[in-house]
Amino acid sequence: MKRLVTSAFIVAICSATAPAVQAGELWRATGLEQPESALFDAANNRVIVSNISGNPGVADGNGYLSVLSMDGKMVTQHWTDGMDAPKGMAIAGGKLYVADITKVRVVDLASGKLLASIAVPDAVFLNDMTSDQAGNVYVTDMLADTIYRIDGDRPELFVRDALLASPNGVFADGNRLIVASWGKGIKPDFSTAEPGGLLAVDLASKAVSPLPGAQRFADLDGVIAIGDTIYATAYMTGTLYRYKAGGTPEAVAHFKPGSADIGTDGKSILYVPLMSEGEVAALKLD
Description:
The protein is mainly beta.
């Protein structure tokens, strides 16, 4: 499994040939090491970035978090060290939660100090995280068709369903989770027999349902929602998609392969980690 994960990222990085998008781009932060997720921290007016810095499936101790200013300047390169391959993040109760292979790291949001590591039993490849309005934290397990909920320091199974089809990105949106699916039948090069799409998980019933018109169109990675519009990245092609209910996904930006777990200020700006380039791009939406 680790070999599969590694080959996927190597293929994506080595095949990066598409030109980067320029339209709507505000800035690019450089000097990062395989940035996988970019999270807007509204309370402190900054962007926190997770750096894998190595094999995304190996506990090698190389991973860390960085802090960027709102204009893309590096504030602190090594804000939080001591991680393995940190990916998606979520903020709840003054703490930062970070998905790190089979653990969820808990970081003090004020200081960047690593407070705890929560082992998730049976986890294979934890990926993205989100928090809902009640402060509950959720994390996807991409290679196990599973989403866990973290209750304090206790992980619990929230939903396991083949319909999730390799859930990667996750975003809490009112009474539901929006999920970006990578797809079914993952191959050694991380392409799929059937590409993924956008799903919703009802927080009360835990029912999984596809979003109409947004199925089997791409191997999706990150996802966020602003109002009634959903944005999602396709890692293998570098495409940023936009979707509204009743419509179909529309490509709105193209990067080199490696666009990962996007973040947003919740208004008009997207933060797109570009893993293969070691950069984060900030985009101004129309």
